[in-house]
């Protein structure tokens, strides 16, 4: 890296840290979304401009469905809610529907009323999207979602397909009008530029998303960064920021540069409404809850130190395979899900 490149790199890192400071998520500065309140020791934050209050830690849907024992999956979900976590993530395609089916069972007996329930669909056209929405509602045993999101916006063609006539957005808006979902968002893990195109395409159609989900972690800050490219736009437009992959599906931990708690505290120190983390066992859930209860916004110096520790390991994306490979691209392996 030459001197000019080093200067540019340091500048973008400074901007990244300054964004956290300016939005009130570092050093205890007042921030609208930071610690709206605390429930059972879990910080709650405001979900963008919706006004909803959600737990700063969210329970990932994929991992609860990959747990071999269904009863244990249900126990994980209910324990999370009992301990103060109300944000639940899921997706129509996770574990061939098992993630939604198990979550639906867990949400019986009064648990649905305690949860902010989100799921995702893959359908890019109206027909596929509408079918997946209804199937998700049946599996989840509920009459409405709190948040519906378009999943895996990872192709340059995805935004135009969703907003085309008879595209998936028509199904989402009809579902919202019918009371099947309260809010609409999108997710993706591949490219910040594709996220920006999705936001631009929405704006061109006079639509503003309620939430956007993306990887925000100690490696992302250095490589093809959602935090540097997309986060400022979301903060500016008051779109809820849903951070995911705080540990890169455990892969970041293999770098031996950071601990699970450091990963969670870093993502929580950004202007996120919620940081979604996968928990396939009660001990892993307890680790996340403990980190949330112990959380204090990291200082600029602490963030700089942590980023310096991860900089070398992050250079080529080897610990962010969801950006650099198709390993995490379910809709690449199953294009029929797109419709």
Describe this protein with a few key phrases:
14% strand; 15 helices; 339 residues; alpha/beta; three-stranded antiparallel β-sheet; 44% helix; eight-stranded parallel beta barrel
Report strand %: 5-15%
Distance between the termini: 44 Å
Can you tell me the overall shape? globular
Helicity, as a percent range: 40-55%
Q: Would you tell me the overall average pLDDT?
A: 91
The largest sheet, given as strand count, sense and whether it forms a barrel, is: 8 strands, parallel, barrel
Structural class: alpha/beta
Taking pLDDT < 50 over at least 5 consecutive residues as the criterion, the unreliable ranges are 1-11, 24-33
> Quick one: how many beta strands?
11
Number of alpha- plus pi-helical segments: 15
Nearest-angstrom radius of gyration? 19 Å
Note the run of SSEs as H and E: HEEEEHHEHEHEHHEHEHHEHEHHHH
Strands in their spatial order, largest beta sheet: 4-5-6-7-8-9-10-11
What does this structure look like?
The chain has 339 residues and is an alpha/beta fold. Helices cover 44% and strands 14% of the residues. The chain contains 15 helices and 11 strands. The protein has helices at 3-22, 61-66, 70-82, 98-106, 126-140, 158-163, 168-177, 192-204, 226-229, 231-237, 260-268, 282-294, 300-314, 321-324, 330-333; strands at residues 37-39, 42-46, 53-55, 57-59, 87-88, 116-121, 145-150, 181-187, 211-215, 240-244, 274-277. The strands form 2 sheets. An 8-stranded parallel β-barrel has the order 4-5-6-7-8-9-10-11, surrounded by 6 helices. Strands 1-2-3 form a 3-stranded antiparallel sheet. Helix 4 (98-106) crosses helix 5 (126-140). The radius of gyration is 19 Å and the shape is globular. The termini are far apart. Residues 1-11 and 24-33 have low confidence and may be disordered.
